[in-house]
Write a structure and sequence with these properties.
Layout lengths: L27 E6 L7 H12 L4 E5 H4 L9 E3 L1 H7 L2 E6 L1 H13 L6 E5 L14 H10 L3 E13 L5 E7 L2 E6 L6 E7 L2 E8 L1 E6 L6 H4 L11 E7 L9 E4 L4 E5 L8 E5 L3 E4 L5 E15 L5 H9 L5
């Protein structure tokens, strides 16, 4: 879920006087942007000035610093380090940028909240509008902002010797798919050491409640409210109609491995649509609930159902 992200045409005017004092919990703010955001120097300059006027230290990741204007020379550091070095992340971009940043926060073992400002075409996760930015920042600094806790997944790929060859955290989903020219996948799935099913399909999606509105929804899976601690297993174009999505407790230990008699020359595991890893027939995928969860700053005026209706046109006639 990484749509093209056009830059908004209007820029809010930052308040010129400080009306809130930052709490002791927030002293350092990180700024992260979509790498190819475009002409956003004015937005970044105003944001950094506003934050610094309140006595906050502002850090940019290296790609975002390159987009800043000539009137501001930000302190910068690599994104993997920045996410654990600040108390709040202000993210300007789309849902793909937020997914990548959330995964970095979790892999760093941090609990840094993210305020995602929509510079994209969908903005289901980055739902804060640019004109709302400073009002919500005031609430964050005052300690009265609405922060949602979103469950994440810890995913490991193990080889035949039970060695971990890939170790990541994801917010939305883990997807196992076949290559463009390979045959359908043939996957055995177990939960808590109990055999669940054999899925013969183009692939399999393991989605969190947050990820239920992403690829899972496109593949015919259910929408799951993010307050529900659940995983959704959704086969992609299954060979038989009896292979239907199933919802299981998120605290389950899920193991997926390809069957040896299947053609898995070109099967891949994709994490949050950001990175992929080949899945040979002697490897297996293990999925558990991550220790860290995403802390997402959300507008107080909009409910989850309103976002569904606005962004996905849900329940429209």
């Amino acid at each position: 879920m990484s749509p093209t992200n056009p830059t908004p045409t209007t820029t809010p005017t930052a308040p010129t006087t400080a009306s809130a004092t930052p709490t002791t919990a927030i002293t350092r703010v990180g700024v992260v942007t979509k790498p190819d955001l475009g002409d956003c120097a004015d937005v970044l300059d105003k944001l950094a000035t506003w934050l610094e006027s309140r006595g906050l230290t502002v850090l940019f990741d290296e790609q975002s610093a390159a987009l800043a204007g000539p009137h501001h020379t930000p302190t910068q550091m690599p994104a993997d380090r920045l996410v654990a070095a600040v108390d709040l992340i202000v993210l300007l971009g789309g849902d793909g940028t937020l997914l990548l940043t959330a995964d970095r926060v979790a892999m760093a073992g941090a609990q840094t909240p993210i305020l995602g400002v929509n510079f994209g075409s969908l903005g289901f996760l980055t739902e804060v509008r640019l004109q709302e930015l400073y009002d919500i920042l005031e609430l964050v600094l005052a300690g009265s902002a609405r922060i949602d806790e979103r469950a994440m997944l810890h995913v490991e790929i193990l080889n035949a010797e039970a060695q971990i060859v890939q170790d990541v955290c994801v917010l939305n989903d883990v997807v196992i798919t076949r290559g463009a020219l390979s045959r359908m996948t043939d996957l055995s799935v177990s939960v808590n050491d109990q055999f669940v099913a054999r899925f013969k399909a183009d692939g399999l999606i393991v989605a969190t409640a947050t990820g239920s509105t992403a690829y899972n929804l496109s593949a015919g899976g259910p929408i799951v409210h993010p307050g529900v601690d659940a995983l959704v297993l959704t086969p992609i174009a299954p060979h038989t109609l009896t292979n239907r999505p199933v919802v299981i407790p998120i605290n389950s230990r899920l193991v997926i491995h390809p069957l040896q008699n299947a053609d898995h020359q070109d099967v891949f595991v994709t994490f949050d649509g950001q990175i992929g890893h080949p899945l040979p027939p002697d490897h297996e995928v293990r999925v558990t609930r991550a220790t860290q969860s995403l802390r997402l700053v959300r507008p107080t005026a909009r409910s989850y159902y309103e976002v569904l209706r606005e962004k996905l046109k849900w329940a429209e006639r």
